[in-house]
Amino acid sequence: MATIYEVSKLAGVSLATVSRVLNKNTPVKEETRLKVLAAMEQLGYQPNSVAQSLASNRSNSIGIVVPELNGPFFGTLLSDIENQFRQAGKHVIIAAGHSDEKLEQESISFLQSRNCDALILHVEAVSDDYLVELMQKKVRFVLINRFVAPLYDRCITLNNQHGGYLATRHILEHGHTHIGYISGPMWKHDADQRYKGHVRALTEFGIEPSEQLVYEGDYHESSGAAGAQVLLQSNPSITALVCANDEMAAGAMTAAREAGRTLPDDLSIMGFDNVNFSHYTFPKLTTIDYPVGGMGEMAAQLILKCVYQQSVDTIQTVFEPRLVERDSIKNV
Amino acid sequence: MATIYEVSKLAGVSLATVSRVLNKNTPVKEETRLKVLAAMEQLGYQPNSVAQSLASNRSNSIGIVVPELNGPFFGTLLSDIENQFRQAGKHVIIAAGHSDEKLEQESISFLQSRNCDALILHVEAVSDDYLVELMQKKVRFVLINRFVAPLYDRCITLNNQHGGYLATRHILEHGHTHIGYISGPMWKHDADQRYKGHVRALTEFGIEPSEQLVYEGDYHESSGAAGAQVLLQSNPSITALVCANDEMAAGAMTAAREAGRTLPDDLSIMGFDNVNFSHYTFPKLTTIDYPVGGMGEMAAQLILKCVYQQSVDTIQTVFEPRLVERDSIKNV
DNA sequence: TAGTATGATGTAAGCGCTTTCATTTGTAAC
DNA sequence: GTTACAAATGAAAGCGCTTACATCATACTA
């Protein structure tokens, strides 16, 4: 592999000049520039990004922590983030946090030791204090799907409560009054907010929220199935089930059918997230769209702006969910 | 951030000694080792991986090119690869090739410029010759889901033909004789092989393969729907549909229902891949399991062995598909 | 006791770049 | 032809580490 030194020799200029045409940060006479470019071409020169990083103290890499790498939700997120950065000549390093405090912290320090210029964090188990400390240590990062007040300007969030509200309101508008709710783990902020939205909608329609009608799941398919089974058995009068995400909704569909219900006629089911498989279910799932893609892009933009000083379009930090009507909801 | 220099000063030893306790590659007296470790602890020392890379000419990073970052298939692949490397203290840099020759090449040289120690490639558009050239340039890489003869020892493949055979044989064993086939893009090696397996099974059962019964899709859901629509309309006697992947099978289900068929009674549907949403469909999809996870792990192992000289369990390069019976196939 | 092998540690030269500061060159004003 | 100033370029010092080689202490052999 040719180095900058060989290029400089061939072009008859100094190292510094080659570096300058590379970085375009200092004017170089057009004539010399062309000589240098020709030399690079001839040698098939490729800058060594590791040496660049060491010398400039910038790695042009962004670390990302997400709970899981697989799963429809994070795939989309990663894909959109990668896209943005790729266009800017940056690259992403990805680590999985598995919703575990220790693993999340490990992932973060792993990425820091990799000299990432910035981090994008979708973390759930780590405390707010830990994140605030991180900021105080001058670590540059953006938070996705989490709001921490002292970090308000680096949080990209979804209005989860409004999403939960929209979901249940839609069901109520179809005349349902006996509505089961399968929540996510309540210690997760988004699960809590979605549930709050659900309660708000019920209240607005004059229905008393009841603990009997709530099952706390873990966002996985199997807990959706378990939840549906439990709720339908103990409350046979239920005509609709609101699930805090699509995976659990899919599980609930299976369990509901096994409990003898015909979908959607005997039971309406609502999802949340609008992940890419949600129209593979039968009946096709009515759900709340979570604009993951947009949020990922926005996180990338925020970093491009704050860390790399690039000018970007307006920054938006709060995103709004949207109802996606398909076939899983029927009038009661 | 503390450097190795400060650690050496505090511990009262030389730079080299600190480096040695860090790398564990040269014996250091236990007593000194402890002194050094204590100094590191006290300073909160974290090695600078960029400097390490530059000095050692190893970046401890592995580049991965996949067609897409989202999608159930690649999510699983990435997840398993990341896991393996993470445990070994390596990290992965991911790029999307989008099944496009130019983009795939760009991704590869992007990762090379990032000084990856090795690459894992799931590429489809780039030519065999290009890959052979890459090998000749001493680029270290492993190929997933692709066989190129001169690179035989670095290809991790699935026996796609056998998978295609298993799929169709299973349908035939259920008494079907009018079987439609929705293939992937025939220029892709796996699509071609799966189809060959299909034909082999038909022949074995004494059925003449007919072009009328084949629709060439693109592996996406929509083409599965289109394929089902076309085939069922032009060949109403079809009682089973074999799809070259699960996405298209999901699309086919929707279209079949729209064409008035009841599933699985009026029409049996077979998938391929066993992606994670395949049991969200209704009826749950019978399919061919593609052991992505295992293959990703194996690719990682191969690199750990050849590039990082770690001893690993046996290396397996050809994987076998396996039938997964669910509910989408009925006797005719 | 001298001689030699062995293990532990130190010295210093890079790895391939960026960047500060100094120098040279070119241009315009006098 | 000088002088003054700006633009272009060069020289060289790092960035934080690894590693070949040199050195030194220690233990063992004869």
Automatic annotation (TrEMBL), chains A, B:
Superkingdom as given in the UniProt entry: Bacteria
A molecular-function term among this protein's GO annotations: transcription cis-regulatory region binding
Pfam families found in the cross-reference section: LacI, Peripla_BP_3
InterPro entries (alphabetical): HTH_LacI (IPR000843), LacI/GalR-like_sensor (IPR046335), Lambda_DNA-bd_dom_sf (IPR010982), Peripla_BP_I (IPR028082)
PROSITE patterns hit by this protein: HTH_LACI_2
This protein's UniProt keywords: DNA-binding, Transcription, Transcription regulation
UniProt KW Phosphoprotein keyword: no
Domain HTH lacI-type span(s) in chain numbering: 2-56
Presence of keyword Iron: no
Protein name: LacI family transcriptional regulator
Naturally occurring in which organism (per UniProt): Idiomarina aquatica
